[in-house]
Fold this protein.
Amino acid sequence: MKLYENGIYLLNGADIVEDAGDVKQILAAKTGKEVSKEEAAKNTIAYGILEAHNTSGNMEKLKIKFDKLTSHDITFVGIIQTARASGLERFPVPYVLTNCHNSLCAVGGTINEDDHMFGLSCAKKYGGVYVPPHQAVIHQFAREMLAGGGRMILGSDSHTRYGALGTMAMGEGGPELVKQLLNQTYDINMPGVIGVYLKGKPIPGVGPQDVALAIIGAVFENGYVKNKVMEFVGPGVSNLSADFRIGVDVMTTETTCLSSIWRTDDEIKDFYEIHKRPEDYKELNPGEVAYYDGMIEIDLSDIRPMIAMPFHPSNTYTIDELNANLMDILDDCEKRALVSLDGQVNFTLKDKVRNGRLYVEQGIIAGCAGGCFENICDAADILKGASIGPDEFTLSVYPASTPIYMELVKNGAVAALMSTGAIVKTAFCGPCFGAGDTPANNALSIRHSTRNFPNREGSKIQNGQISSVALMDARSIAATAANKGYLTAATDIDVNYSKPKYFFDETIYKNRVFDSHGVADPDVEIKLGPNIKDWPAMSALPQNMLLKVVSEIHDPVTTTDELIPSGETSSFRSNPLGLAEFTLSRKDPAYVGRAKEVQKAQKAIEANTCPLEVLPEMKTVMEIVHTKFPEAGEGNLGVGSTIFAVKPGDGSAREQAASCQKVLGGWANIANEYATKRYRSNLINWGMLPFIIPEGELPFANGDYLFVPDIRKAVEEKADVITAYKVGSELAPFTMTLGELTDEEREIILKGCLINYNRVS
């Protein structure tokens, strides 16, 4: 795999010319004409799609309108509640509500199904589509029923990626979907475009997860594709099946790219024909000369079975490399665990080594990444006639949709799997977000799913429970299962892959999925279960801000799962205050109490009472503030909490990572950088200040008060630098920035949140 240091010109989709040296002469010789970088940049597939969906008239400052929207049940209640508070009358574009994240927890009573009935009633009232539980995971339904060549889809899940089908899709926090529901736009600068040039053909036993993990391992840490569009081109694309491309594509989220798009061909045309939507196919290719801001060149024949060790998809090795250096790599994993788990539990994987081989206790093939038809058929071929054994090892397979499940039943793959001792379950994202198939304490699970962050498997560090996940391809998971839990690469097994043809039967969707066909019925009464609560009132940004630092996190990257855990917390997803109780619960359990204590002061201000009476420590703090800012106080002061994290926001698009801080009185984050655009956007949409502070020794510590004078004026006047003060025995100044903000984003912050920005009284 090669990462080019410079920009790349791609000629006729095949010939790579690096933007270096006498490139103009080379291009002229090859094309017979003068080539402009600016014009060539317009010849990417990505540029064409973005241009077609941009409403601003300025391709440097995009205002995107999406063709379709999709959400699952962790997010759609909050989204629709926000939109309702903002005057929603009908869904202006097709909006699909899936229920693949039903928590199935033993807590919460009727909450789970109450949320589903809320979704169904909203689909009827506002004119949407409702997919009942167990019918399909969100992204598989989108592939089967929503994607189309040249379209754009916005989803409230980070793995909203349908680029392999010619659809540029993006995963964002709920407020960005709210904007689309209110006929507003998705505002971004024109992103860079990174070409991914594929050549060669994968060897037997290598699957899409292997290719994806190899890419993630190469680009995550160096930020090569961060917030850029990955565009898959080259002759190797045509050597991949549609399912294979889909399996690579969905994992591009883990590179921190903004979106993805692939060139399309007869293989994708066939996909649409199989799904009885031939009119939705569109041939997509880069222009004669296309310019990319960078290029990843991959010879698919060089890829070998991969494994991403705990606790991140970028912690990658070939399985051969792991087996050859087993104890050294396990030792490195234990060192990583000290950082990821903050030393809260004893963690080791060395006890998994049996007779010089790594033994795992669980295998999972599931969700939008693993549950595709081809993955499961290949796994069944590998396991045919085998046994997973009667020991600790278990294997569960979750087809990504009921149509896939039905076809696997018809062609015998389900029977082949079940006869081995494997369990075949329904479409459910549970293993992916910590709400299903939680391994035993100290166990290791290998999974063809999207993430292996700490606690994503369902363990609870705060209770002394820890298990871990390594990511692998379905084929190597099946090979490991055939060897009864001993880690095995699929390339080490001689298998005749049957490659059965897929036949899509839409009958189950016709029988069970509610589709309004875009017709709203305003007379429908929304079903509000007792746990479904409105968002609390939120104040506008004050002139001056007093912030207390209530958590300080120095991990290299902080995931949204650490900010607000998934799994059992999903039982409270429709209750903002109930869910907020879990904020940072696995990373900093003291956070909620500290934030609530500070929030007392702001609530007192909003009630026109004295904040010093409910938060006495403020008295000394304000006395020091008044030595330089005597005017700060009644009528011009807001009080809130903030956290510092080095690089927060990797992972899930769930807005709750930001909104939970907000409802607890959070008014800002301070970071060296933000891991993803979507987390920063979530902060902004919830009226929180996304401060950036240079790397190095912090001018404050956890528990310190920070005074930010004239913050409202700074936001209004687009100040480049924000001067703040640590309040100690005296005021100690330091500077931060807010980064680039659109006029709309500034107004949202000034109003206090997106709801206030759009509120209809």
Observations:
- The two ends are 56 Å apart (CA to CA).
